[in-house]
């Protein structure tokens, strides 16, 4: 049978813990309600003051250093096997032409054979097949790639031209812009501290963003299959400027 009364030692421990419990409850109530409370024996911990959230942003305009071209070999007809052979032959010839051109990187895309349909008396009926194969060409020499594009456009469809920034150029730009963004963040933190009448600041937290602005607006080119011409006209590929940015975000604690 358990004891009917608490021991004197247990009572003393409970009484000793009571003020701490009251202070904890008071602090919780203060965080939920603006009503002041003065009955707690100790003040609640106040939120730190003088915290400022800042951002530093660095930008640069960069000319892309690589041209990109996407072409497709497309054939339609009733015999899927024959169409596959024709498209494969066109694709092989394009790859060989790209390999024979100095400074051009080639990559093949999807090779698809899909049924085509027509409407007959209100009903959809298959009337043949469409075979499509894609090839992607890249080069740092815009003129050379434009000349090759003019050559291949006689037998392939030009689906789009564009530009991109190579990995090496991206790395250089990110390193430089990150350095500038951090310097701007530090300058803003120091200036903000002085403007608010503080002497200095201490960094609380910070995050450095990745390089932004690498995806330009695509420039599609829809061209019908052209007949072979004795004169191969190069297709010009001109690079615009990319606006690249790096952001640094964080907070500082101002100090007297």
Explain briefly what this protein structure is.
The chain is an alpha+beta fold and 256 residues long. Helices cover 33% and strands 36% of the residues. The chain has helices spanning 8-32, 80-99, 142-152, 167-195; strands spanning 51-62, 66-77, 104-120, 123-139, 157-164, 200-208, 219-220, 242-255.
Chain-wise SSE layout:
Blueprint: H1 8-32, E1 51-62, E2 66-77, H2 80-99, E3 104-120, E4 123-139, H3 142-152, E5 157-164, H4 167-195, E6 200-208, E7 219-220, E8 242-255
Antiparallel strand pairs: 1-8, 2-4, 2-5, 3-4, 5-7, 6-8
What does this structure look like?
- The chain has 256 residues and is an alpha+beta fold.
- Among the domains are: 52-61 and 170-211 and 247-255, no CATH class; 66-118 and 125-164, Alpha-Beta Plaits.
- The protein has helices spanning 8-32, 80-99, 142-152, 167-195; strands at 51-62, 66-77, 104-120, 123-139, 157-164, 200-208, 219-220, 242-255.
- The strands form two sheets. The protein has a five-stranded antiparallel β-sheet with strand order 3-4-2-5-7, with helices on one face.
- A hairpin with a 2-residue loop joins β3 (104-120) and β4.
- The longest helix is centred in the last third of the chain and has 29 residues, at 167-195.
- Residues 17-25, 31-42 and 217-231 have low confidence and may be disordered.
């Amino acid at each position: 049978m358990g004891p009917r009364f608490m021991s004197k030692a247990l009572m003393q421990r409970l009484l000793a813990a009571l003020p701490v419990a009251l202070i904890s409850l008071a602090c919780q109530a203060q965080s939920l309600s603006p009503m002041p409370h003065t009955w707690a024996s100790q003040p609640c911990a106040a939120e730190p003051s003088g915290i400022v959230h800042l951002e530093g942003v660095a930008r640069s305009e960069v000319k892309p250093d690589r041209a990109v071209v996407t072409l497709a070999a497309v054939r339609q007809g009733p015999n899927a096997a024959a169409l596959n052979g024709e498209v494969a032959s066109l694709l092989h010839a394009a790859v060989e032409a790209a390999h024979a051109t100095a400074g051009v990187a080639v990559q093949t895309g999807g090779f698809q054979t899909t049924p085509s349909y027509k409407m007959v008396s209100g009903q959809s009926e298959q009337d043949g097949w469409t075979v499509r194969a894609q090839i992607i060409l890249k080069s740092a020499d815009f003129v050379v790639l434009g000349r090759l594009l003019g050559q291949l456009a006689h037998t392939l469809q030009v689906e789009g031209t564009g530009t991109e920034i190579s990995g090496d150029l991206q790395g250089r730009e990110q390193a430089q812009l990150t350095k500038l963004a951090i310097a701007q963040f530090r300058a803003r933190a120091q200036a903000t501290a002085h403007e608010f009448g503080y002497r200095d600041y201490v960094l609380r937290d910070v995050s450095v963003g990745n390089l932004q602005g690498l995806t330009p607006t695509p420039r599609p080119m829809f061209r019908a299959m052209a007949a072979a011409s004795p004169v191969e006209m190069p297709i010009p590929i001109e690079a615009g400027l990319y606006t690249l940015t790096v952001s640094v975000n964080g907070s500082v604690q101002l100090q007297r």
